[in-house]
Amino acid sequence: MHALRVNELSDDLSGVELGDLPAPERQPGEVLVRVRAASLNFPDLLMMRGEYQFKPDPPFTSGLELAGEVIDADAGSGFAAGDRVMGGNKTGAFAEIASVPQGGLSRIPEGLDFAQGAALGAAYSTAYTGLVELGGLTAGQWVLVTGASGGVALAAIDLAKALGAKVIAATGSPGKRAMLEERSRADHVILAEGRFRERVAELTGGALCDIVFDPVGGDVFDECTRCVAFGGKLVVVGFAGGRIAEVATNIPLIKGFSIVGLRAGEYARRFPERGRAIAAEIARLAEAGRIAPAIDRTLPLSHWREGFEAMANRELVGKVVFDVSR
Length: 326
Ligand SMILES: NC(=O)c1ccc[n+]([C@@H]2O[C@H](COP(=O)([O-])OP(=O)(O)OC[C@H]3O[C@@H](n4cnc5c(N)ncnc54)[C@H](OP(=O)(O)O)[C@@H]3O)[C@@H](O)[C@H]2O)c1
Known about the structure:
Strand content: 25-35%
CATH topology of the largest domain: Quinone Oxidoreductase, Chain A, domain 1
Oligomer: single chain
Distance between the termini: 11 Å
CATH architecture of the largest domain: Alpha-Beta Complex
Radius of gyration: 19 Å
Helix content: 25-40%
Number of domains: 2
Mean pLDDT: 97
Number of helices: 10
Bound molecules: NADP nicotinamide-adenine-dinucleotide phosphate
Order of helices and strands: EEEHEEEEEHEHEHEHEHEHEHHEHE
């Protein structure tokens, strides 16, 4: 089977190649899946460079998120041959066949195709955990989402709108602003440059934002600490900008807001009931047509480098989905 192998860690992806491998053998507790689509997430790129918190030893097959059909599963697992499933493990999705722990899979919501199934779970569960579980989002609140063109950020914008929030999307890429105005559901799109707090204050009538959802970090995070309303939440999602910010603790004290760290996967592992409830709520919203993942492009897996480079170079507005059969 085709599989995208990381033979050695590399910044320029020189240690990665598309190879032919034997199909994995299913272990008890796992489900064997014929992968129909797999989506790219920022941690896939970080893992290839050895920069992610989870550091598998090469060689390994890349890819944390897939959608496909069940080939084989344990009796009593709740899965049977032919079921349409989505999910994944931390690695192994960029291959024609994957063996996935059964807890890492759920059914593709009705009405979604394999590409949408592959693009839904990780981004929306991250968005839901950050906005609702940690942020306590309620209808009518103001939400600021940075790094707005990213897969997780676009899911956060879409979900916040579906739940009745007023959303400001902040992008660091001037060229993407018009595209975001057209393609995202944000009420306002602003540039995350310099002192963007003034613009946030203007748009919210001085109220600032109840929840700030920040996947970027660095200077953008620093300015985000000035955009949170009293009693609000600043959710630390990631460091796509490359710098982990530091904050003086007098700032949240004086401004009366909380800074909360998000680890969506770990949250679902530690609180499995909440994890299942989050997945069910995302499926319900998707089936009702109230949320839908933004897909920038679908590529054959043989064009994997184009997808990874587009992500690294910030060219995307939404997710890359790979067709692993080509
Ligand atoms: N905490 C969690 O549980 C969790 C779960 C999943 C992912 N994450 C993290 O969330 C972040 C986003 O993941 P994603 O899959 O949505 O990635 P993505 O699709 O590549 O989005 C990242 C976005 O960040 C912005 N950005 C700002 N500076 C950047 C830079 N120097 N390089 C690249 N992008 C930059 C870009 O948006 P603009 O051009 O619009 O500014 C870009 O589209 C990553 O840090 C990832 O590790 C966290």
